[in-house]
């Protein structure tokens, strides 16, 4: 008897998984939307239930679908392809940090490498709605002290608005770990050392360049902002640096 795996089923399940991915991309389905029952999907794609289950397992591993039991159960969209990729990236980065296979300074270098060009793209593609979001985030931060939850939320909203304004779905997925994994620990570790006036001045400089549609200036202002945070981190006691390099994997509903 052969002990070789059934490569035909594997190939078929991978093809079905790819077709479902394409369907999610093209259909505009949102998290919570129902794809159908297992039996319905197996019939639609002309494959056996075991082959479909393997395809769904692959998609679930990418956070794209989830199964629900019960009378109204079935297969549902768990996240969009971009959101699923972003979540996988965040979990991978969190695992690398927990295993100490990447340093915190390397993460900050990665952040600068990706987020500064995003600011330039935001300056090129920004809309009036983008400016309103950025201005709202700055105004909200003005009302609170660094390290407090409202200030941290406003800070995250500012950076999220820039990423969304860049208009590049792939870059948004690749940079999601910055908000999901890195930012929360930055707030925890350096929030009490931050001078609100410094952060607000840096955010306003970024906002000003984006408002004026000046990509080079926006990128330069973002680099200056990240360099400031790196300096704050470098000045912290060793104990704080040790604590920040061991975040738990992100949990997102």
Concise structural overview:
The chain has eleven helices and three strands, in the order αβααββαααααααα. It is mainly alpha-helical and 253 residues long.
Tell me what you see in this structure.
The protein folds into two domains: 73 residues, Arc Repressor Mutant, subunit A, CATH 1.10.10; 163 residues, Up-down Bundle (Four Helix Bundle (Hemerythrin (Met), subunit A)), CATH 1.20.120. It contains eleven helices and three strands; from the N terminus they run αβααββαααααααα. The chain has a three-stranded antiparallel sheet with strand order 1-3-2. Helix 9 packs antiparallel against helix 10.
Question: What secondary-structure arrangement, pairings included, does this model have?
Answer:
Blueprint: H1 7-27, E1 34-36, H2 38-45, H3 49-61, E2 65-68, E3 74-77, H4 81-98, H5 104-125, H6 128-142, H7 149-166, H8 169-190, H9 196-211, H10 215-234, H11 238-244
